Amino acid sequence: MKQHKTFMQKPADVLRNWHLVDVEGKVLGRVATEIAELLIGKNKPTYTPHVDGGDYVVVINASKVAVTGNKKEDKIYRWHTGFAGGLKEIAFDQMLAKSPERIIQKAVRNMLPKNRQQKLRMNRLKVFANDQHPYQNELKREAK
After folding, report:
1. Homologous superfamily, domain 16-143
2. Contact 121, 42 (CB under 8 A)
3. pLDDT category, 95, cuts 50, 70, 90?
4. DSSP 47-61
5. Residue 66 and residue 77: Cα distance in Å, rounded?
6. Is 81 exposed, middle or buried (0-12, 13-18, 19+ CB in 10 A)?
7. Which of 35, 38, 44, 104 minimizes the number of CB atoms within 10 Å of its CB?
8. Of 77, 67, 62, 61, nearest to 29 (Cα)?
9. What confidence category does residue 47 fall into, taking pLDDT thresholds of 50, 70 and 90?
10. To the nearest 10°, the Cα dihedral for 29, 34, 40, 41?
11. What pLDDT is stored for residue 37 in this prediction?
């Protein structure tokens, strides 16, 4: 009887691709899971859980992302500064006007596993408010 071997990818063998994701009109949570899957590398047949084998992701039109229901008015981002009375909050629509890139980054970060690879994966996420970005060459090279 033939024995099958389990494939384990080595960090030196990782090949990283570039993906362009246009979030114009797409729902925030659904697109965040797709982006997280690309950053983790689960879309590849060489996926190995303990090796960071994900790809680079360039997100454009972050200012045109959609949310369902009343989240545009009701969703609030909260954080604490660490000082007494330091609870800060900002509404979704204010965050969308101020820095739409952070909305995508926060959503994707929360979709990623909370482990040592999270920061490495987030470094490969490039988010832009409009459709202009400096990664045209990498995307063109990948298309060939």
Report:
1. Ribosomal protein L13 (3.90.1180.10)
2. no
3. very high
4. --TTS----EEEEE-
5. 16
6. exposed
7. 44
8. 67
9. very high
10. 170
11. 97
